[in-house]
Design goal:
Length: 242
């Protein structure tokens, strides 16, 4: 796990420092911090986005958790890393289709996540996006009865956004279902779960053409597999694009 993560991070740093890509998105590095008020725990993520300029893109992230409650940047442990490769194409002037595969590395093993996505942008700044994906574990887990199972989850994600000048507003909804009948529950002792998330982002463009995009997010997420308790998830971060 740690070796794979170090190799992926090193590859990303070399790619970022050695190439400039000719496309609208260029190269983006993102840092994000979050706090969940139910669990009372902090977490952090660092993410890199690369585009070849030939309809192929790559993403890599590393996630960290604080083991102690109400503690920031102390006793942090690796919570996994994810590498994604995808192909995108314009289906018409306003519609983009994306297909890809993510590899989510955890301390227990690997999760394969194939997905398909459609992004549609209206001329007035409103956009709608949808993504369907599978999550396929390559290792087994034990349910409450001690029986081994391999998790398979189907998930649908939806976004509604609006961009006006330097401000961007986005609402996100995710819903997913565990397909294995003997698996651990996802939420409220059932095989389904969901979340809501709202993001506000500001874009500052420099004279050199780079962009700084600070953002804040507020989400409603589950707190337990076995009860209906929900919690608020607060996030803040910044994206730098060049």
């Amino acid at each position: 796990m740690n070796t794979i993560t170090k190799v992926l991070l090193a590859t990303t740093l070399v790619s970022v420092s050695g190439f400039t890509f000719a496309n609208d998105y260029k190269t983006t590095i993102e840092y994000r911090h979050e706090y969940r008020d139910g669990a009372k725990k902090h977490g952090d993520r660092i993410k890199a986005f690369l585009d070849t300029g030939k309809n192929i893109g790559f993403e890599l992230d590393a996630r960290y958790n604080n083991d102690q409650k109400d503690t920031m940047f102390d006793g942090m442990t690796m919570n996994g890393s994810e590498f994604s490769a995808f192909y995108y194409t314009k289906l018409n002037p306003n519609l983009v289709g994306i297909g890809g595969l993510s590899l989510d590395f955890t301390s227990d093993g690997l999760v394969y996540v194939p997905y398909a996505r459609l992004n549609y942008r209206f001329d007035n700044g409103i956009r709608v996006q949808g993504r369907y994906k599978w999550k396929l574990w390559d290792y087994s887990m034990n349910n409450t009865a001690g029986e081994a199972y391999v998790s398979k989850i189907q998930q649908a994600d939806f976004w509604l956004g609006y961009n006006t000048n330097d401000w961007d507003f986005q609402y996100e909804f995710q819903v997913w279902k565990e397909m294995e009948s003997a698996a651990l529950p996802q939420f409220d002792d059932k095989d389904t779960n969901y979340l809501h998330n709202f993001r506000l982002m500001y874009t500052y463009k420099t004279a050199e053409g780079t962009m700084w995009r600070p953002f804040i997010e507020v989400g409603n997420v589950s707190q337990s597999r076995y009860t209906d308790n929900r919690q608020t998830r607060y996030r803040t971060g910044i994206k730098y694009t060049w």
